Amino acid sequence: MPEKHFSYSDTLLRDLAGKVLDLARKAGATAAEVEASEGFGQSVNVRKGEVETIEFNKDKGVGVTAYLGQRRGHASTSDFSAEALGRTVDKALAIARFTAEDDCAGLADADLLAQEIPQLDLHHPWDLPVDAAIELARTCEAAALAVDGCITNSEGAGVSVQESQFVYANSLGFMGGYPGSRHSLSCAVIAEDKSGMQRDYWYTTAREAGDLDSPESVGRRAGERTVRRLNARKLATRQCPVLFEAPLAAGLIASFVSAVSGGHLYRKSSFLLDSLGQLVFPDFVQIQERPFIVKGLASAPFDSEGVATRDRDVVKNGMVQGYFLSTYSARKLGMKSTGNAGGNHNLIVPSTGESFDELLQKMGTGLLATELLGHGLNLVTGDYSRGVAGFWVENGELAYPVEEITIAGNLKAMFMAIQAIGSDTEVRGSRRVGSILIDRMTVAGN
Known about the structure:
This protein has helices at residues 10-26, 82-97, 130-145, 215-227, 246-259, 262-266, 327-332, 356-363, 411-416; strands spanning 31-47, 50-68, 71-77, 151-170, 175-193, 196-206, 238-244, 287-289, 312-316, 319-320, 347-348, 366-373, 383-394, 397-410, 418-421, 431-432, 436-444. 23% of the residues lie in helices and 36% in strands.
């Protein structure tokens, strides 16, 4: 396992975690868990061909959670010395002593902890000298500026290299950890004509540098997206179909995840309460969780509590098959952890078979949303209202850009009104989905 960039070996982090657990036990903790981690990175940003920022980050930490029965306390430190670790354990226990008992507090169930740790190929160091990073960013920005003469300014291009590693352990005997990496390349530019100015951007991210899109393609995409937004108009208020471009469609799935996550469910602050076994989407919609994708951006053999992850169908034939639960939220609901402490793992929403162009043809006349503004979602009621920029579509073709409009609806109705899911998936994070066509929403404009 490559470790040459890290200050600490995996063995040392494991020894450190073991020592902290031993300190907690000797100090009177009835149970304890600890995470020891370190990370580092480099970010370079270039604007108009000139270096704007060069940043280096390096951090490390130990977090310990100590239990006194069902009272819980947490403390952390960035100091790995024996004295600091001892003080941190004492602070966690001191907090626990003054905390009310909680019958749902405690470590994960022993029978749910990961027994095998598959190798998922998540760590790919990128030995990128600063000078080379600068040239990559310059190449990316130059490609964007070359798209059209109306691109008169730039917000810059950036290259980011990040690596980290961790070890999680608890007093039930579980100990596991691994290194990971995440690299990215981005660009944003500004175009101007007599109608005014517009901006747009594009980026790519991956575990391994070789899986990133080329700097030329990222810059070109950023430039093309910016230029096509010029001469934007407003729309009159109406109801019409709305096509959410793939990056925005991932946000719709994120809203579903939030609505069926344990914290919102046990607090009864979700519009999808008691949705297990209920039809929430049309019967052609599937949502699959796949934690073991090699080099996946959200792959993990276990969650942040050591609970084993597993392949599962979260939504099958439109029906909710499972929630996203940590140990605590599961106990509050009288259920079992789903291995989602810390978030979801590679959610995949299969396409209904249409390309992006075919989705435009299927929509015929309506709104293509390419940028959302604001945070108008009420998770309790499902009411949804966002500022939008995008394009008016007529006869399956982009007619003209639009801006200063708002779309509104209710997520429960929106989910059921999904007409198709495109094959134009952008792999950028924990949710993989193509553009989503919704049958009807309210568009508020002039």
